[in-house]
Design brief:
heterodimer, A: alpha+beta, Heat Shock Protein 90, 2 domains, five-stranded mixed β-sheet, two-stranded antiparallel ribbon, 9 strands, about 10% strand, B: alpha/beta, five-stranded parallel β-sheet, 9 helices, about 55% helix
Chain lengths: ~375, ~220
């Protein structure tokens, strides 16, 4: 139980005020006590009770050192420490009148504590919040004001300072802490995303390997095995396509340009049991609109192969880049066709050759060539400018 | 052309034990001897050095160092070694790197058992395994080099006949079909393909050496 309280207390202390802020506050506290002592020594001859003043100044120095040393550890008693701080400061402030004499206090405007008296409410504000700090500041300011009430602005202005300074410090600490918490949350989210991405990669890789294995071995396991092999192959292709179809890579923080499409990745999606895709390494970028249009043509050609070239027909897609244009060749080893038949089909619009293939390529500013002979398969060659 | 007396000594590299098992079974049935298997890059390097296999069937997607880097390192150390790259689609850059480093060929993981065995046999015989996918990659690489020639003017280029042959391979034609179309012998087609690969690998060695000299690593 005891340990728990300790730990929570430490955590709270660490969370609220970082080490660097606390150290700065310590240095300011020491600077302030030096200032107050110097001010007191300068008015030693006019003070009513100079001996008491020296004693009080010594207590201030000693207490400041205690605060600096004990403020860093012993956190279980931190609350008591701050209350003592406020109490001792209040006593010193209250002694200002009797020790200095009302007239001296009024004319010099500084109490025995000088600006040092601000440190207690400021520290309280740092650790417990603006309101408490400002309240303590108000009490201390009021005590000092009542020692030698005056309408002199230099006297009552102290009251404003003793309230606003602790309030502002508390506010800054709060805003700072909120920003840190927000940043921590973002970092945690990013780390979690990255980890999930990593796990995804492992899982996906495993799934792909198993699917590929089923596709490979299934053929030897009878008709059912064959069916499984086909299904596995299809799923493997689909999953691979999905994995390649990414515009954002979380782990690298890369945002791929959505206005352009990489033709190599686009064409690779057609890779399947019957379609082999050959491209170069690296990327070939084309604006997405144009790339999509080109892809529709390829899809149309492949669907024609499927419909007309025979069940066992295989296709090959080759992508080349040459002087600002791409050359996409789609060849199949199907039954092929005679020129007459091709012309007839084109006239009847059955193959979709005119509209969906030649027309689309023309609108992209490209050219298409068709080569086919009976038993020799069919070959389309498209030359399309990249821009 | 295979040696009947001594079985081919093969090493298998793949991070998935399932694949290693399946490949080992197929290759053993075919009369090969599996002398080593490895699941990651460091195992690959130590075991290849220890066993000196005839052929390494290399998956590119393995943990540190990756398959392409292993190929580079091993080709430098064991000049007689032949590497057959086997990988999933979509790893084009790595495949190209491995082939430039001296790998003899490339098959997709999705190829059938028969295709795989054929590729291993070809590799054993020192023949390049030139799948359409690899032809596309090599063609693209020559195009890239032609567009950004190196200042020393020693960039290899393809003859028009070689380009023709490569394009045919990439479009899925068999060597026999190509020979028929071009009115040359099967052997000539094979020579063209082999040449294309050799030029690329030689250029890669020259580039690496030049880089090493520039970086002061040669001393």
């Amino acid at each position: 139980m005891k340990n728990d309280t300790m730990r929570i207390c430490t955590a709270q202390g660490d969370e609220r005020v970082s080490g660097s802020i606390r150290r700065s506050a310590d240095w300011i506290r020491l600077a302030m006590v030096v200032h107050a002592v110097v001010v007191n020594l300068l008015r030693l001859d006019v003070a009513h009770q100079p001996v008491v003043m020296i004693v009080v100044s010594s207590v201030m120095v000693a207490w400041s050192l205690v605060m600096v040393l004990y403020g860093r550890r012993n956190c279980r008693r931190r609350r008591n420490l701050y209350l003592c701080d406020i109490g001792i400061t209040a006593v010193i402030v209250a002694l200002s009148g009797p020790v200095l004499g009302t007239e001296v206090l009024r004319s010099t405007t500084f109490g025995l504590g000088g600006f040092w008296m601000l440190m207690a409410p400021v520290t309280l504000a740092m650790y417990t919040g603006s309101a408490v700090g400002a309240g303590a500041g108000l009490v201390l300011g009021a005590i000092q004001f009542l020692e030698a009430p005056s309408l002199d602005p230099r006297v009552w202005t102290h009251l404003i300072i003793t309230v606003t300074v602790p309030y502002l410090v508390g506010l800054l600490i709060k805003v700072n802490n909120e920003a840190i918490a927000e940043r921590n949350r973002s970092v945690a989210t990013a780390v979690a995303l990255e980890e999930r991405e990593r796990l995804n990669r492992i899982v996906h890789d495993g799934v792909l390997q198993v699917l590929a294995m089923v596709a490979r071995e299934g053929h030897e396991l009878g008709p059912r095995g064959k069916m499984l092999a086909l299904l596995a192959r299809k799923q493997e292709d689909q999953l691979r396509t999905t994995l390649q179809d990414k515009h954002v890579d979380v782990t690298k923080g890369e945002y791929l340009d959505a206005d352009t499409t990489d033709l190599t990745t686009m064409l690779e999606k057609h890779q399947s049991k019957t379609v082999t895709v050959s491209t170069m390494a690296g990327h070939v970028s084309m604006t997405t609109d144009r790339a999509k249009e080109l892809d529709r043509v390829i899809t149309e050609v492949l669907s024609n192969v499927f419909k007309h070239a025979g069940v066992n027909a295989k296709s090959w897609i080759l992508l080349e880049e040459e002087k600002g244009q791409v050359i996409v060749t789609v060849r199949d080893d199907g039954i092929g066709m005679t020129p007459e038949r091709l012309q007839a089909a084109a006239d009847a619009g059955r193959l979709g050759v005119k509209e969906s293939i030649v027309g689309r390529i023309l609108s992209l500013g490209g050219t298409s060539t068709l080569d086919s002979a009976p038993g020799k398969g069919t070959e389309w060659e498209f030359r399309v400018p990249l821009q | 052309m295979r040696f009947s007396k001594a079985p081919t000594r093969i090493m298998l590299v793949d991070d998935h034990p399932m694949w290693i098992e399946a490949l080992a079974e197929d290759l053993s049935e075919d009369g090969c001897e599996i002398v080593a298997v490895a699941h990651d890059g460091s195992e690959t390097l130590t075991r290849a050095r220890a066993t000196c296999p005839d052929v390494v069937v290399m998956d590119l997607n393995i943990p540190d160092p990756d398959g392409a880097t292993c190929t580079q390192l091993l080709m430098n150390e064991l000049p007689g070694l032949r590497v057959l790259v086997m990988s999933a689609s979509g790893e084009r850059d790595d495949v190209l790197r491995a082939v430039k480093a001296g790998a003899n060929g490339y098959v997709l993981k999705s190829s059938s058992k028969a295709e795989l065995l054929d590729a291993v046999h070809k590799t054993v015989d020192g023949e390049a395994v030139f799948t359409p996918t690899l032809a596309g990659l090599v063609l693209g690489e020559y195009r890239r080099m032609a567009n950004n020639p190196s200042p020393d003017d020693d960039t290899p280029s393809l003859t028009s006949r070689e380009t023709e042959v490569l394009r045919f391979v990439a479009k899925g034609l068999s060597y026999r079909d190509i020979a028929e179309q071009l009115f040359v012998s099967h052997r000539t087609v094979q020579n063209h393909v082999q040449n294309v690969l050799r030029k690329l690998q030689l250029h890669n060695r020259v580039e690496l050496t030049r880089y090493a000299i520039e970086q002061g690593l040669d001393s």
